[in-house]
Amino acid sequence: MSKIHNVGIIGGGVSGVVIALQLAKYGIDNIVFEQEPSVVNGPPFCHLHAGGNLYPDISDEQCRILMKQSIEMARLFPQSIDERPTFISIPKTEKYEVDTIESRLEMLVSYYKELINEDPANQILGTPEEYYKLYNKADLITLTERPTVKRPNTADEWMTNAIKLIDYNQLKTPVILVQEYGWNLFRLAAQAQLALNKSEHCNLKTNTYVIDIKDVRKKNLDYNWEICTKDKVYKVKYLVNSSGFKTGKFDESLHLNSERLIEFKAAYVSKWQPIPGLIPELIFHGKRGTPHGMAQLTPYCDEYYQIHGMTEDITLFENGLVQSKGNAVQPEFNKSITQKLHRDWKTDEIKSRTENAIDFVGKFIPSFKSATVGGPPMYGAQQISGHDPSLRVGEVRFPSKSYARSEIIKASSALTVANQILNKIQEEGIIIAIPNKSNQNELLDSISKHEIDVLAAKLAIERGYPGALSKLVIKKD
Ligand SMILES: Cc1cc2nc3c(=O)[nH]c(=O)nc-3n(C[C@H](O)[C@H](O)[C@H](O)COP(=O)(O)OP(=O)(O)OC[C@H]3O[C@@H](n4cnc5c(N)ncnc54)[C@H](O)[C@@H]3O)c2cc1C
Q1: pTM of the predicted model as reported, rounded to 2 decimal places
Q2: Fold exhibited by the domain 60-182+260-385
Q3: What is the pLDDT of residues 407-416, one digit of tens each?
Q4: Among 225, 243, 298, 405, which residue has the most ligand 1 atoms within 8 Å of its CB, making it the best to mutate?
């Protein structure tokens, strides 16, 4: 008789792998199906949203959740966190007021203090007093007189390097420096894949597409689901659907009437000239979807920079956001977007969209106009459950017995979802109760920095990107 697995996980994105790692840590046998050759190969991520400061319109509650979940994920995958701050500004053309952001930042400092009181190891964003700093126009004038620092250490040094490049007369003041860090997806993918391959409790099946699932819950067998791939049928007691923007496909086959939006977006890889000192990530806020949408410049190693521009000719796409309709709970993209999702981008479009992105950033950083295309775009589609496209926190749902659907919107929600699923499978009696749960994962801790460096570079190159994108700007031991 073929083996019965406790948990079957469809999708080895950040959500699926973190669930598998949490299960494996407690010795719970699981099997992960990922259609791609390596894990965490779906939509990209580059920013650890530790406070939600890229989203002036979301609720304070979502900001607090993003901060807490980001800290938890940064503690789990420290080798993927790039500890450089983020510069936040509002151009004078925009309606947003700096005061709104300022009062939220004070709320976040208090909340960060609470998290540190709960567990001092949560202090991964510096001291609460250093969480953010405001700079008025006079401060900026003073800083421009200071020398550039090759490897900044203080907020003032980071701001000095940034402000010398930025045309700050276009910005409202104060501008802000906040401790929201970079997040390297290639390093997270490498560490997760190495740890799962090492675990005797996880069977990681890459290059394995799940064609169908069969619900056998009413047949009184020792298992509840059959997971069908091209070559084989796998038996599992508990099913986790973490297939990202495709979760609706499996809901449909179970006749579950869930609603979701799916959105296709892309960020662009550019190469600039060497500059004398490191800079923070740079954010110029603006209303999403208008020609003044937010601009985001993310620094990587060796003069590579990733750019998001929240306009339709850069990151967003015409018909890039679609919703489920009637019984069709899995929304579908049109042909042009589907082709892009399958890596079928026209060379001209890569060039024109990357150049649009460079010009967009060049409005605020005039010298950046000399940047050129540095690699293929980083793109993908994600799901947002319900109807509200501005939602930034999604977790998990249990729409039916022995079935969980991960609905994360930001990568930082992955550990919360994994722990919610762990609780549920105990509740359903699939496994015996686990005493003393913790977030630390010895499997991940057993992977060395060297192993991560080597595999992360290999993954970046295999996926067509410069190897430099797998390195941290702020080196760690
Ligand atoms: C342009 C862009 C920028 C982003 N930036 C950030 C950021 O800076 N910070 C942040 O926190 N978040 C960011 N996000 C969101 C982040 O990418 C998602 O939250 C995250 O990737 C979702 O993870 P997931 O595991 O739920 O889904 P996915 O990563 O989509 O994983 C699902 C996996 O399931 C696999 N799969 C699907 N169907 C099948 C099948 N039938 N058989 C086998 N395998 C299957 C897919 O191949 C995929 O690997 C960004 C998203 C985009 C599009």
Answers
A1: 0.97
A2: D-Amino Acid Oxidase; Chain A, domain 2 (3.30.9)
A3: 999 999 999 9
A4: 243
